[in-house]
Design brief:
The chain is an alpha/beta fold and 270 residues long. It is built from nine helices and ten strands. Strand 4, helix 5 and strand 5 form a beta-alpha-beta unit.
């Protein structure tokens, strides 16, 4: 397995400097959200061919892969203006990702935390947005990866499989697997069985794994912690990875650079 990180956890830097920092830390690659990671790029609209060439060259020179080009859009929003902007931006980023040699362009399907009624309302809009974006992925022959999150319209294994089936483009529509974004009830979930079911039915779609850990405080607040010190049980996921996809990238999110060595050791043991 390859070890990577969400690049902007190290702060915003010049393109070449950030590539050098990530290489020095020992990563094999990074997930890039350009407006969050690089000086001089505040919005996706700011991206130029020059930026893309500098990124491609800097990461190649530092022997770093770009497994995920992040473009997280509000794809299920009922407001057609918001939704259309998200799809158009995502389509542009599919081309940008191809230019820098990214493995996939990744997105979630909403911005806010939704209740069950809202998720049901947003679901058809989300599915239509994904279908439109995948049409462009097919045209460019690149991969779009969607990330299920339990508070978004794409909130469950059933929802993911439904979208995959309806779109019908498994070569161009893939998945980012983030266990922390799928574990709504850590105190009552049999994680071995839960992850086993996800991996049995959706494992064939996975292009990258987000690795993080957390606990909920007494008020239900999300508290990130070092890997292995929270509620996520990685044993079943580790077993599946070794047996089925030892080529996958493990991408640490919410990395604290001051404690990176401990998290890197945990990831290598996976």
């Amino acid at each position: 397995m390859k070890i990577g990180v969400r690049a902007h956890d190290y702060g915003r830097m010049e393109i070449e400097k950030l590539a050098e920092v990530l290489r020095a830390q020992g990563y094999d690659g990074a997930q890039l959200a350009l407006p969050k990671a690089f000086e001089g790029i505040r919005r996706y609209e700011d991206i130029t061919p020059g930026h893309l060439e500098r990124i491609r060259r800097a990461f190649e020179e530092n022997r770093l892969e770009i497994p995920v080009f992040g473009c997280y859009m509000d794809l299920g929003n009922p407001d057609p203006v918001v939704r259309d902007h998200g799809v158009k931006t995502l389509k542009k980023c599919l081309a940008y990702g191809k230019e820098v040699g990214a493995g996939v362009v990744g997105t979630e399907t909403a911005y806010p935390h939704l209740n069950q009624r809202e998720k049901a309302q947003w679901y058809p809009y989300m599915a239509d947005s994904i279908r439109r974006a995948v049409e462009e992925a097919v045209r460019l022959d690149v991969k779009l990866a969607i990330e299920p999150v339990y508070w978004h319209p794409l909130d469950s294994l059933e929802a993911l499989l439904d979208v995959m089936d309806k779109v019908g483009e498994p070569e161009h529509l893939r998945m980012i697997f983030d266990p922390s974004n799928l574990l709504e009830f850590p105190d009552t979930t049999d994680q071995k069985a839960y992850w086993g079911e996800w991996l049995k039915y959706a494992g064939k779609y996975i292009e990258a794994v987000h690795v993080k850990d957390f606990y909920f405080d007494e008020n239900g607040g999300y508290c990130p912690v070092l890997l292995g010190e929270g509620v996520i049980q990685y044993q079943e996921i580790s077993r599946w990875l070794h047996e089925n996809r030892p080529d996958l990238f493990l991408l640490r999110e919410e990395m604290n650079p001051e404690t990176a060595a401990q998290d890197l050791e945990f990831m290598r043991k996976l």
